[in-house]
Amino acid sequence: MPFRVGCIGAGYFSQFHYEAWHRISNATVVASVDADLGKAQATGHAAFSDASKMLADHAPDIVDVITPPATHFEVLQAAFDHKPQVIICQKPFCETPDQTAQIIARSKETGIPVVVHENFRFQPWYRKIKSALDHGEIGDVLQLTFRLRPGDGQGADAYLDRQPYFQAMPRFLVHETAVHWIDTFRFLLGQPRRVFADLRRMNPAISGEDAGYILFDFGDGKRGLFDGNRLLDHAASNTRCTMGEALVEGTLGTLSVLGDGSVRLRKFGTTQPVELLAPTSHAGFGGDCVYHLQKHVVDALDGRGSFENTAENYKAVAAAEAAVYRSAEIGAWVDLTA
Question: What span, in angstroms and rounded, lies between the C-alpha atoms of 157 and 212?
Answer without folding.
Answer: 21
